Amino acid sequence: MSLLEVSKLTRNFGGLTAVFEANLHLDKGELIGLIGPNGAGKTTLFNLLTGVYPPSAGTITLDIDGTTTSLGGKAPHRICAAGVGRTFQNIRLFKDLTVLENVMIALQQNVPYNLFASLLHIPPYAASERRIREESQELLDLMRLGGKAKELARNLSYGEQRHLEIARALATHPSLLLLDEPAAGMNPAETAELTGLIAELRRDFGLTILLIEHDMSLVMKICERIYVLDHGIVIASGTPDEVRNNPKVIEAYLGEEAPSA
Ligand SMILES: Nc1ncnc2c1ncn2[C@@H]1O[C@H](COP(=O)(O)OP(=O)(O)OP(=O)(O)O)[C@@H](O)[C@H]1O
């Protein structure tokens, strides 16, 4: 069975169908792109996968090493605990906390928390806080933010804030990582660095990654397969070459940036 199996997934908002009978699957370790013109339903699909909205119809099944979970309609924290981490199109950080604290908070959500132990600073709490601090620093090092741990998140550049978002998502120990426009607002050099980093994360953590991205150079370079959404419908899927030469995809993108990079 695939790590993620989405079948006939549909979401209506009043009279508008944002996603209609979408089928997709991700095998363990794959790096898959989700593209489509503005308003195609990409973020809605992520929101369905992560419990922000319940599906109107269809199923979402996660299989991690033989443990199968039906995700459709579950609360976001339960989906996160099941192994799905994500970043957001609009960066969501605690801007007035430090970079390190931002990651520590995400990590803390995974650690059994004992209020009395924490207030009294008794050893088990101190040890767990030390572990959290160390792992947070490691995640920052990985995301090339090691030297910025003590900065306030608001003082990071836009590109650095996107790296911090990924560090926070990794702190939830996901098996499946959903990245919503990770390169948005980045310059070409930053995008190239991020492209390498995403490939590295997948390799080093054995992660399965689904990414939404408008930057075709990134998508075409690192994704093994790509799904194309248009008006809520999966109109094509395949390798980057198959997708970029698909007439339906070319037509969907007429008037937009063509997926040619
Ligand atoms: N909460 C909501 N209520 C009503 N309509 C919504 C809601 N969320 C999304 N939509 C609509 O669903 C459609 C798909 O939107 P969505 O944001 O998923 O597209 P997208 O492919 O992510 O677009 P973009 O590339 O511009 O971010 C749009 O018509 C949008 O207006």
Annotation keywords:
alpha/beta; 38% helix; binds adenosine-5'-triphosphate; Rossmann fold; 261 residues; 4-stranded antiparallel sheet; single chain
SSE order? EEEHEEHEHHHHEHEHEEHH
The CATH class assignment of the largest domain is: Alpha Beta
What spatial order of strands do you see in the largest sheet? 6-7-8-3-9-10
Helical residue percent? 25-40%
Named once each, the bound ligands are: adenosine-5'-triphosphate
CATH topology-level fold name of the largest domain: Rossmann fold
Instruction: Please mark out the parts with pLDDT under 50 across 5 or more consecutive residues, or reply none.
Output: none
Strand content: 15-25%
What's the structural domain tally? 2
Q: If helices are DSSP runs of H or I spanning 4 or more residues, what is the number of helices?
A: 10
How would a crystallographer describe the biggest sheet? 6 strands, mixed
